[in-house]
């Protein structure tokens, strides 16, 4: 009964996400849906007012931004979900670590398992942040730490990963407890309480701003014009031909450097045995897919581009917490359809319960970021962005490079 209710709620969520994400998908619906969309539009105006008032209070100094005396790099979005942020955070952390930095990733841990409300009231400022990884070993699973923090901790030995809604508290903990000198604020564009030295914003080329409405009528977290706060803008999921989007961004922000990148599949890995397979294995294979991510179509289309014949797609809501029976049903369905494998994403794989055996193999696709323009490689990009090395950035009309703006902001914050 409970599972049926969750399924029904997720179907409604999928429907609403589609009509608020995709331009034109909200047209031609019955009056009841149009009434709902008008209601959401009204709420989005209220949300916009709250966002702008909050930013004004921070900019006016009425709300305080806390400096931590170390480098704080924010990687975030102006939209809700689906820009491919986690792989960018991962590669930034890895390259910074290679440069000799002691790195900590600060995450909110979206949809992690929460303590009862009556415990949270008294523990918000008292209890230390959850330590997903202390840089030496994994200490929490995806349920307690959150999907992305667990995935980052699993892929980044030597990097500290902390989870707490209060990122000022977790940042202080990272500096004092683990001696970190560089903090990466995961999903930090809207988190104003902690002073950022660098503001990196990701924009999804396949759906940059949705239908241009704010939440909950659209997917924007802030008005598009607030992109002017960014020091660097990454156009993700790019095909290398983003001239029109670049012009839109440049009209909103005349000083940020723009870097284009794509998400490149690297290999397949068995969820249960850790066996790795070449992407070539997919060519001509019949597969089914299972995903609970913000943009499942992107994943499913990538399987087709790699040569797979996708005969069935099972979709759940973003961050869906899988039960064993759901995975058993999925692999049995793949076997009944005579599929060669069940395919999923790495983000989903960390939420899969353990199974002893499966009638067909279950693989996730390992994805990395590849730069298309703006730098020779990611190492050069990180060195340039974080340490102001390499070729200087393009000057603004006022004669200030993005690096100069970032350095000035760091000095103001005492970093």
What does this structure look like?
The protein has 415 residues and is an alpha/beta fold. The protein folds into three domains: 2-59, no CATH class; 71-255 and 375-412, 3-Layer(aba) Sandwich (Rossmann fold); 264-369, 3-Layer(aba) Sandwich (Rossmann fold). It has 13 helices and 13 strands. The protein has helices spanning 2-21, 31-59, 85-98, 117-123, 142-145, 147-155, 167-178, 243-252, 296-305, 324-336, 346-349, 378-387, 402-412, and strands spanning 71-77, 103-107, 130-134, 160-163, 182-186, 198-204, 232-236, 257-270, 276-277, 286-291, 309-315, 341-345, 362-373. Strands 1, 2, 3, 4, 5, 6, 7, 8, 9, 10, 11, 12 and 13 form a 13-stranded mixed β-sheet that branches. Helix 8 links the parallel strand 7 and strand 8 (257-270). Helix 3 (85-98) crosses helix 12 (378-387). The longest helix is centred in the N-terminal third of the chain and has 29 residues, at 31-59. Mean pLDDT is 87; it is low at 391-403 and 406-415.
């Amino acid at each position: 009964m409970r599972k049926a209710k969750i399924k029904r709620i997720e179907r409604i969520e999928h429907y609403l996400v589609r009509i608020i994400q995709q331009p034109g998908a909200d047209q031609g619906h019955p009056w009841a849906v149009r009434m709902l969309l008008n209601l959401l539009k009204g709420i989005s105006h209220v949300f916009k007012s709250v966002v702008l008032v909050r930013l004004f209070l921070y900019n006016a100094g009425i709300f305080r931004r806390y400096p931590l005396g170390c480098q704080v790099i924010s990687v975030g979005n102006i939209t809700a979900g689906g820009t491919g942020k986690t792989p960018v955070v991962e590669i930034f952390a890895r390259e910074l670590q290679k440069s000799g930095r002691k790195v900590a990733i600060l995450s909110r841990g979206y949809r992690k398992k929460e303590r009862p409300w009556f415990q949270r009231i008294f523990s918000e400022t008292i209890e230390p942040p959850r330590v997903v990884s202390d840089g030496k070993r994994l200490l929490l699973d995806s349920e307690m730490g959150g999907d992305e923090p667990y995935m980052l901790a699993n892929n980044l030995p030597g990097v500290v990963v902390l989870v707490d809604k209060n990122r000022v508290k977790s940042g202080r903990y990272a500096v004092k407890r683990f001696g970190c000198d560089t903090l990466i604020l995961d999903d930090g564009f809207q988190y104003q309480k902690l002073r950022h030295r660098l503001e990196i914003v990701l924009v999804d080329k396949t759906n940059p701003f949705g239908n241009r409405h704010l939440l909950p009528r659209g997917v924007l977290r802030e008005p598009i014009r607030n992109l002017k706060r960014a020091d660097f803008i990454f156009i993700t999921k790019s095909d290398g031909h983003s001239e029109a989007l670049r012009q839109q961004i440049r009209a909103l922000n005349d000083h940020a450097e723009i870097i284009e990148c794509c998400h490149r599949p690297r290999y397949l890995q068995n969820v249960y045995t850790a066996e790795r397979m070449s992407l070539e294995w997919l060519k001509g294979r019949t597969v089914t897919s299972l995903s609970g991510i913000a943009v499942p179509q992107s994943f499913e289309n990538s399987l087709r581009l790699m040569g797979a014949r996708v005969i069935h797609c099972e979709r759940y809501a973003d961050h869906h917490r899988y039960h064993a029976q759901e995975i058993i049903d999925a692999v049995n369905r793949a076997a009944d359809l005579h599929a060669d494998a069940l395919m999923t994403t790495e983000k989903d794989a960390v939420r899969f319960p353990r199974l002893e055996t499966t009638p067909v193999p279950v693989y996730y696709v390992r994805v990395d970021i590849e730069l298309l323009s703006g730098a020779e490689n990611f190492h050069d990009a990180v060195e340039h962005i974080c340490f102001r090395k390499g070729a200087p950035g393009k000057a603004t009309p006022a004669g200030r490079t993005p690096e100069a703006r970032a350095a000035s902001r760091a000095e103001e914050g005492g970093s």
